Amino acid sequence: MQRRQAIRSLFGASALMPAVVGDLLADGSPSQHAAGPGRGPHFAPKAKNVIFIYLSGGFSHIDTFDYKPALIERAGEKHHRGKPLFAPSWEFKPRGRSGLMVSELFPHIGSCADDLCLIRSLTSDHGNHFQATLGLHTGSFTVPRPSFGSWTSYGLGNENRDLPSFVVLAPRMPYAGGQVWGNEFLPAAHAGTRIADPADPVPNLRRLSPSEQVQRLELDLLGQLDRRHGFERPGDGRLAARMKSFETAFGMQMQMPDALDVKRESKATLAEYGLDPDAPRGMAWQCLVARRLVERGVRFVELIDTGSNRNWDSHSNMRDHERLARNVDRPVAALLRDLKSRGLFGDTLVVFATEFGRTPTRDGDYGRGHHPACFSGWLAGAGVKAGHVHGETDELGHQVASDPVGTHDFHATLLHLLGFDHTRLTYRHGGRDFRLTDVGGEIVPGVLA
């Protein structure tokens, strides 16, 4: 039996997952296997895992987390390019002991205000969805680069040898597609593994062999073929990495079904997330699975609540934010509480982000336009100030007034929480050392506990 025949016998004709079999069949450069050790942090990390919640399309900062009473008072007044100012459509209230102002769009997240580090001064270099999404995820607004999740996997590796280090829960493809979780020139083991459909989460996850014992015999046979192949090619480091990857794939077929099985959760937990175990879907399913993956040692989990359409890009009708918020609000708050109750909150960094904000002026009849000049997001969990606001915009939410946080600054700060000096986490490619923050980025000390 040839090695390629053995591969297809074990895992099927198509790839089991990008982080494993895609690397096995490729003729690329040597790489670590999916669950291998990373390069290691430069100093003691505050966070060991990341849950990155991404709201595609650009939710409105001035309708959610950036309270602007002057915008209410001056509604209808002509402003930028002669467009009328547009008041927020939802009431804001002070939340928790910290008094963070959060609108009625997110009442459940607002109930967790004392755990949030709200950043109101984020800025982006691009107002187009594709480029802004690419920039937020890779640090590059023009050409593909490795994603933040891939850099995290490359740096930290994995705590669980039987699961990938980077998983993306994305029912629909976002702007920029798979580049959002791509590895580019980093070793293929660090690409994100996308799970789209709860009913069929990972293609070929169910083994073709009739039993675990038979599959182990097949793996042993493949190992013999690999060793023979390696003996004939001394000094080729690719083979050892590929052999390790088969073990990871085998382990995934054992562990991933259990990790994705939300029916194992208690009725109380399912109710907290608002999840029907017989019809798992939406952000409730994504958030609960994210917690289950993190507690099993997956380093980076990204949740994308919508794709490149029917998302937060409310040009014509801001009321569409209500539909979208209902999918997100309750389960995200439940995730924060669940992480705390299980002792995971202190080691997990939760990121809540979008690609840009919305204009303080009306766009069309009842919408808002793209606004990269300023927008809001928040952090929670390991190493960040709780019940805190960093940065401010002007009285209309049109420009950053203090403490701007650019994309490279944002990434530098997140990497710092993971124990990395962002200028030293590099990869040699094409004759130069690349990094997530390119040639910029400053840590934002104001958000650090």
Search tags:
alpha/beta, eight-stranded mixed β-sheet, 16 strands, 449 residues, globular, 31% helix, Alkaline Phosphatase, subunit A, single chain
What would a concise description of this structure say?
This protein has 449 residues and is α/β, with parallel strands linked by helices.
Characterization of this structure:
- The structure is a single chain.
- The chain has about 450 residues and is α/β, with parallel strands linked by helices.
- The chain has a single domain, classed as Alkaline Phosphatase, subunit A (3-Layer(aba) Sandwich), CATH 3.40.720.
- Helices cover about 30% and strands about 15% of the residues.
- The protein is built from twelve helices and 16 strands.
- It has helices at about 5-10, 20-25, 70-75, 105-110, 130-140, 150-155, 210-230, 240-260, 265-275, 280-295, 320-340, 405-415, and strands at about 50-55, 90-95, 100-105, 115-120, 165-170, 195, 300-305, 350-355, 355-360, 370, 375-380, 390, 390-395, 400, 425-430, 430-435.
- The longest helix is centred in the middle third of the chain and has 23 residues, at about 240-260.
- The protein is globular and about 75 Å long.
- The model is unreliable at about 10-35 (pLDDT under 50).
